[in-house]
Amino acid sequence: MPPGLSATGVTHRYGSVTALDDVSVTIPAGTLLALVGESGSGKTSLLRCFNRMVEPAVGVIHVDGTDVRAIDAVSLRRRTGYVPQAGGLLPHWTIARNVALVPRLTGGVDADAAATAALERCGLPASRFGARFPHELSGGQRQRAALARALAASQEVLLLDESFSALDAISRHELLDVFLTLRREVAFTAVLVTHDLGEAAQLADTIAVMRAGRIEQHGTLAALRDAPATPYVAALLHRAQAAAQVLSSS
Amino acid sequence: MLLPVTIAAPIVTSAGAQASSDTSHLRRAIVVASKPFGESYLLAEMFAQLLERAGRRVERKPGLGATEVAFRALRSGAIDVYPEYVGTGLVAILGDTVTAAMRSDPRIAFAQVATDSRTRFGVHWLPPLGFQNGYAIAVRRAVATQYHLRTLSDLAASPARLVAGFTSDFIGRNDGWPGLRDAYGLRLRDVRPLAPAVKYEAIARRAVDIIDGYATDGLLAKYDLVTLEDDRHFFPPYEAAALASAHLMRDDPGAIAALTALSGRLTETRMREWNHAIEVDGRAVPDVARAALAAAGLAADGDTSATTRLGTTPREGFWPFFVARRAETLRLAGEHMRLVLIALCLAILVAVPLALAVVSQPRTAEAVLQALGVVQTIPGLALLAFMIPFLGIGTLPAIVALWGYALLPIARSTIAGLRIADPDALAAVDAMGATPRQALLWVRLPLAAPIVLSGIRTAAVLTVGTATLAAFIGGGGLGEPIVTGLGLADMRLVLSGAIPAAVLAIAVDALLALVERAVVPRHLRAR
Question: What are the residue ranges of helices labelled H in B205-314?
Fold first, then answer.
């Protein structure tokens, strides 16, 4: 059973800029929360609280009921998968070595076997891709490798920071399919940061709309659609729907 | 540790004019030095031979950078004796004003310089050698005829159309150009700084009209130059004498006695001949020194060669000369590379960790780079001169100076390399739980490696070039023939140091290019 996550009364400032303003949210075990909002709304800051990349000045972050400040940052991060927008693969390491990073850091299990299994699950057979370097892969393949790396040590929490945003439509679609399959096969709790409400609708169990460091509304897509809590949420949904209609009618 | 240790020398008894040679191995070698010009080499070699005949072990450190370097080395005890001139001592070293009495009576000048040097610096002037070698302002004979120049006053009265090429030493010192100009009211069209080695060539080729020479230069005659008389007695007396360190004076009266044997035995005419033999005929300094000692009535017992006159075999060309010197060149190249490698390795060991320590604090990093940049701007010779009181002369200060110069390119490239290392990759390993040490070893350093290495490569080439300066403080290497060649106006010697140094620089660069290719990560090479 993967852990549940929660943030309670979290406030964080960068100098005079308030990135997070009294944010509280709960992510039940095994669910995926999408953080949606424009740049600077605080989504990434909130995401990074869950592996202590950001240490909020006020408020508490819990992972599996434990205050993260009581968990060593390095060991917390080794248990938490992370997929940044550009993948963040090490350019001088092969794909196999990249994916084996965390298993190697934690020791214990056979790192190479873990990497091979993770690559297979993400649709990149190690026999074909393991010995290649990141620049020898397409953008979509690189993100798959990054996803494999984030799960290779059986991490039960996954932090996805615009992981699917920077791809062309087709690669992105394939990657989303891979991800949906993974969610059925592997149990993890996840936080996804995205600009794209459509992507959130497709992947998330609940959606939190953020603006200026606050959560405007948190709920299922249906709940947001039926009863938008603020004009901003309403406008966001309206725009997304309009875009979808243009696509389907043309 | 750094300064030569004065080993408790076996007490030389009061009889000690001749220390018995069987105890000489217990005594440390007497270090005889010179400044980098022909006559200084010759006099130093004569001192050395006299000391060896008196049973002393001698270490020769010829061609120390300049007055400042040689004098600091003597004060600090890094050398024991070198030839110096009274006028230089008065003006350049002591900064004394030269009185009219000193100008008219060399004995008064000598008494003054001897007393002041002893009380202020603890060094000792031995009685003068017997000749003066003052500055000689020289013009081409045609110029002298055209403008009716016989004295410096004539020059002052002539129209300001002439161009001077003076050594930077002369341009800078108060007993040189500034004082001379004011004393006579001289007006020239231009004054250009020239290296001692090229000034005669420059005047012969009419690039300049006036140069500063020394009265006993052998080259004055070769190029048919006219020396203008110092009719107002601006220049102080430049009697040559041995300048000895405090502890040589205290610990070895026998050596002092051996050196003093030369006092009053040399004349200007003879010195001009010997200098000519070295500077124009290209005779070997030790041979000329032996002949000069014999002519001064100080022939070694049973030394037949000393009485034979120096032959007049013409100078051989560069290639035969170069080929004949190849073993020596190889030895010097080895010495050179040793200096470079030690300095470079130490620089890497300091600069890379330093860069790592400051890279995350941009302000500190900038301050560190600026500080290292300041080191870079100190002229090599000045840096070496500063260090003499602390490190003496020889290999150690040379390595320290080279190390100082190599720090900046390595630190700068390391900082630059670490900064450009793929920020996404860095953020990812950090977020995945790599420790800072793992992030450093696995990501930051490998990604920075190509740039760090290019900085090391720059530093290496720079160091190979700069290491030629080591010779100015007796540090050896390929600078040795360059310094000596410049001092003796012998281009063959200069080239026999400069060409191998250039070849070494190119070779080092090529070698490091190969290393660079080997360490550049495959993802960068594949593109």
Answer: 219-222, 246-251, 253-260, 268-279, 285-295
